[in-house]
């Protein structure tokens, strides 16, 4: 297994005020004179992880990481007011201007890849390249499959998940979860924990043993409150659908990496995106699920990002 780059201390940490009373937790790492790269976390609502920046060589990249609205150490945590796709796109512009960056490489996984695509469509002049891992396209069928359609794959786990809803509403789990997560912590906790267990089952992770408590549980509630808010609005990407807009993406180096056994974001979406982007490269990695720490996904990410740092392009991949 290729080793991730070592964790390095931040060059700077900012609290950046944006619209609606939100304050973004923003950090820079690596080489201040290096190639600018912004790393977009998943979720929505999950918050940035130190792991995500360790795919990039800190000697060659100027790495920007931040917690999106309502997520991680941004405040207010779990807030859904003034928290839409348009707000996130405005935040990316504000961060870029705040840091004096004209163009940057955009690296995103799962929801982070969704946001990367939307950002490239909104500000094509700001994007020098795209690295998309486990791309989520926010199609209605993607959202439905996560909550309802995967029952055929994991019937026992889905039955445990669906038990959070009354029998008559198990066809509308997202709606039930969205309503439950709006409440205070004691009311919202069972809904957050049910979602957390289901996501673990879908990702192929080991069954969770110690359930989150205290602040970790509060963070989980905030995460899924934001996520349900976005998913219940199709992430504001359905008119027109994101995939139908992707033909207008800038013709910049674009690498798509996807696990062949990803149940959360099935690989058909990555293949369809690649068909819309003839200038992109695609690698479907057999046996890999949604987990970014799988050794083969780690190796593929490192190889792609090292190649881009060295040559300004991603190494050619065999299209799948």
How would you explain this protein's 3D organization?
This protein has 320 residues and is of the alpha/beta class. The protein is built from 11 helices and 8 strands. The protein has helices at 50-53, 85-99, 111-122, 140-147, 155-162, 173-181, 185-203, 214-232, 242-245, 268-276, 295-311, and strands spanning 12-17, 23-30, 35-40, 61-66, 104-109, 127-133, 254-259, 281-285. The protein has an 8-stranded mixed sheet, with helices on both faces. α2 crosses α3 (111-122) and α6 packs across α8. It is globular. The protein starts with 11 loop residues before the first strand and ends in a 9-residue tail after the last helix. The model has no long low-confidence stretch (mean pLDDT 93).
């Amino acid at each position: 297994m290729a080793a991730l780059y070592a964790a390095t201390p931040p060059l700077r940490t900012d609290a950046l005020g944006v619209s609606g009373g939100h304050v973004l937790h923003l950090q820079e790492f690596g080489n201040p004179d290096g190639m600018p790269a912004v790393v977009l976390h998943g979720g929505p609502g999950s918050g940035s992880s130190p792991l995500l920046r360790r795919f990039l060589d800190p000697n060659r990249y100027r790495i920007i990481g931040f917690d999106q609205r309502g997520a991680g150490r941004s405040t207010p945590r779990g807030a859904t007011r003034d928290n839409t796709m348009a707000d996130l796109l405005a935040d990316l512009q504000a961060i870029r201007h705040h840091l004096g960056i004209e163009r940057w490489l955009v690296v995103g996984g799962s929801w982070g890849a969704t946001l990367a695509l939307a950002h490239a469509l909104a500000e094509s002049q700001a994007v020098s390249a795209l690295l998309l891992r486990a791309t989520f396209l926010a199609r209605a069928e993607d959202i439905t499959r996560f909550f309802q359609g995967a029952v055929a794959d994991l019937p026992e786990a889905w039955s445990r998940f669906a038990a959070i809803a009354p029998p008559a509403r198990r066809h509308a789990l997202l709606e039930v979860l969205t309503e439950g997560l709006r409440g205070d912590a004691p009311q919202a906790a069972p809904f957050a924990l049910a979602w957390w267990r289901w996501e673990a089952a879908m990702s192929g992770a080991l069954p969770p043993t110690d359930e989150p408590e205290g602040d970790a549980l509060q963070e989980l509630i905030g995460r899924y409150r934001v996520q349900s808010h976005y998913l219940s609005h199709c992430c504001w990407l359905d008119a027109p659908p994101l995939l139908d807009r992707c033909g207008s993406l800038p013709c910049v180096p674009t690498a798509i990496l996807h696990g062949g056994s990803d149940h959360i974001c099935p690989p058909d979406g990555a293949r369809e995106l690649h068909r819309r982007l003839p200038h992109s490269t695609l690698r479907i990695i057999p046996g890999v699920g949604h987990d970014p720490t799988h050794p083969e996904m780690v190796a593929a990410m490192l190889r792609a990002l090292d190649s881009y740092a060295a040559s300004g392009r991603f190494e050619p991949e065999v299209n799948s």
